[in-house]
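sanity check this:
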Amino acid sequence: MQTTVVSVNWLYKHLDDEQLVILDVSPKSNVSGLETAFDNQMIPQARFVDLKKDFVDQTSVFPNTIPSATQFEKACQKLGINRDSQIVIYDNLGIYTSPRLWYLFKVMGHEKVAVLDGGLPEWIKQGQETIEKEIKAYPKGNFKAVFQKEGVRYYEQVLENVSVQKSLVIDARSSGRFNGTAEEPRKHLKSGHIPNSINIPFKEVLEDGKFKNKEALKKIFAHEAIQDQPLIFSCGSGLTACIVSLASALVLENEKTIYDGSWTEWAELQNLKK
């Protein structure tokens, strides 16, 4: 059972596995300024996922909010995903949106899920075949979502943690945004950070579109503030936090959660207090 990341070589060898489901979660756009040369290509047998449409709570005022278990389950069943499916997720930026969908599967109770290290660019770099992007209909799957509430942190919990400091908040935004010296992509929000949080920008855990090796990741997470306590990952809207969370899962045993509203919610609600 694969539960974190898999290599291009692993995926190639398992393409014919009966339980394998490959999901292409390539984004239409992103706020990080990343670009891809592979807009219209996908891995054979992959199923395209519209993350923003199908796996985000559309009723939320905040971006990338976790969907209900019912919405998630229906979207997975529509993609032909079953309870016993081994899911491998990739995107066309290397590592960007794929860890977010990986996290959502985990928080919905599905453990057999992994991210393709390096994504579509690495697949192509290693000479593997691609097809033109296509969107198809699939026989309805029997996937069942069971929401794991302990995998999510909400504003009230993060606010309380500022005082009790039981958990450590790790912010995946750029150092400029974290330190308040660079603007937020959402112009009405001020930059800055949650009190007592530390900064590990998501780009620091990546190299050439792949996760850095374990020795390099261990050095990154050897921050003096990181002990054995639970970790709460945050970013602008809960997406790139999942990149750093997945990187930490490769080298740390700490309990890990995501602050769903992240800085967008925190800054908005702090403004309302003034």
The radius of gyration is 18 Å. The chain has ten helices and 14 strands. The first helix runs from residue 8 to 13.
